[in-house]
Amino acid sequence: MDEYLIIMRLDLITKDRQPSPEQMQAYMKQYQEWVADIVAKNKFIGGKGLSTEGKVIKSGHVITDGPFAEIKESIAGYIMVHASSFDDAVSLANACPILNGPGNSVEVRKVVSVHNM
Amino acid sequence: MEDRELIPHLFRTEYRKIVSVLCRKFGLAEMEVAEDIASETFLTATQTWGVEGTPVNPTAWLYSVARNKASNLLRRHQLFEEKIRPQLENEVNATDELEIDLTEKHVDDSQLQMMFALCHPLVSQEAQVGLCLRILCGFGIEEIADAFLTSKETINKRLLRARDKLREENIKVVFPESQEIEHRLERVLTTIYLLFNEGYYSITKDQILRKDLCLEAIRLCTMLVENKLTDTPPVNALLSLMCFHASRFDARFSESGEVILYNQQDTSLWNADWIAKGGYFLHRAGRGGKISTYHLEAGIAYWNTQRDDTPEKWERILEFYDKLLDIKYTPVAALNRTYALSKAKGNDLAIPAAEKLNLTDNFFYFSLLGELYIERDAEMASRYFEQALSLAKTSTDKNSIQKRLNTLYN
């Protein structure tokens, strides 16, 4: 099976979108269930959440604040999975709870590694 | 700790600690920055713990992330370059000052100082309770809006205005001067009491009791008692009164969420620990000789923890209410005083006193009259209860009244 990267993008800028503690708890639970599901299918490789601050280095070695200052869809985290096909990976990604929030999105990319046979 | 409540619980307890420490360091003018850092810390937690699971020590994890965010901010922000760095170079080793101190003593002190700052007399009382709920108790905007029966926009506006005021007036996160403390404490205590009442008598949800709000109020008051500067008699009296009320938390509601009136409560569910705590603080409140309204209310609350209808109980309660009304008239106190009068001296005296009150827009007024007339004239009593029913707003209140009516019809 091939490896896929599932990238989660969150609208971090619009202040209205700040969830309440109860909502955060619910999201956390949903994430955990989503991941557990993938683990149960024996397809989970790993994943991380990302901190909200960051930096962007542009050509010319210009370092700026970002990404949250610049684009609305900031990468909130990612997981890596095994999947039998792109469609399979997409179906795993489709269950991501981040999609419950308007303005959020999920990106699926296949990992092309020198180690893939 | 039930997993279901982990983040809301942590938000309640840690949000304010982080914000208080940061406000103390950056100043109240940067309160929004402090809040942003705290909020983002929680957002990061939600994502990371969602994907990786909950860390072994969630609080330490939160502090670590908050500390890093704040240090990053300090390092790159204009604020640091223009204002802090010049001062630092004169004072301490620069790297020390980049540390955010989240040790227990510093956190406790910062929160107390924050309490005084938020309850500054220049900020409107209305805004203060909201601000305390947000910053000191970690309540979400929606919850606060619910508590005040208003909208998120209104609350946001209120908080914005309050923050602007704090910034304009350049209010600092420090302890007031010792001669100022007593006066400044008055506002703080009013706010804490408002908070407690919001929880105890919440008219916004079907469940009257918002235990969290009450416990937060008690926690804030306890912080005041634990600090020598603020350990004064009125503070102890307020804490005592809240403890006495809290002792009946578990007895006030049935399994199905219905309100159980005082006389029908299962006294085995009255918490003896809370009553003991109330007694302890009431005793401490007695040092010093000056009586505040909180002392009087605590006295009444004490007697309410004694279920037996002894003459002494109601006579003392009546006395306390009379003194309270002397200091300040409120419809609630007047109604309660009348009830105490009926228990101490009988309906013949109480009924005319009640009728004189003429609080015809208040459903409690009609409930009281209903109660007083039950033995004398069931017909009148039921009419009064019907009137109360029509004025009552929440379903919890309506249900209570309906139950009284039903006992009459049987």
Descriptive overview:
- The complex is a heterodimer of chains A (117) and B (410).
- Chain A has 117 residues and is of the alpha+beta class.
- Chain A has a single domain (2-110), classed as Dimeric alpha+beta barrel (Alpha-Beta Plaits).
- Chain A is 25% helix and 35% strand.
- Chain A has 2 helices and 6 strands.
- In chain A, β3 (55-58) and β4 (62-65) form a beta hairpin.
- The longest helix of chain A has 20 residues, at 21-40.
- The radius of gyration of chain A is 16 Å and the shape is flat.
- The model of chain A has no long low-confidence stretch (mean pLDDT 83).
- Among the domains of chain B are: 1-102, no CATH class; 313-351, no CATH class; 359-410.
- The radius of gyration of chain B is 24 Å and the shape is elongated.
- The model of chain B has no long low-confidence stretch (mean pLDDT 85).
- The chains are: A alpha+beta (117), B mainly alpha (410).
- The interface between A and B is medium-sized, with 29 and 33 residues.
Instruction: For the record, give the distance between the C-alpha atoms at the N and C termini of chain B, rounded to a whole number.
Output: 46 Å
Helix content of chain B: over 70%
Instruction: Tell me the CATH superfamily of chain A.
Output: Dimeric alpha+beta barrel
| Rg calculated over all Cα atoms of chain A | 16 Å
Stretches of chain B where pLDDT is under 50 for at least 5 consecutive residues are: none
> How many E-type strands of chain A?
6
| Secondary-structure element order of chain B, N to C | HHHHHHHHHHHHHHHHHHHH
How would a crystallographer describe the biggest sheet of chain B?
A: none
What strand line-up does the widest sheet of chain A have?
2-5-1-6
Main interface pair?
A-B, 29 and 33 residues
- The helix tally of chain A amounts to 2
Tell me what the CATH architecture of chain A is: 2-Layer Sandwich
Q: What oligomeric state best describes the polypeptide chains here?
A: heterodimer
CATH class of chain A: Alpha Beta
Radius of gyration of chain B over all CA atoms, rounded: 24 Å
Q: What is the 3D form of chain B?
A: elongated
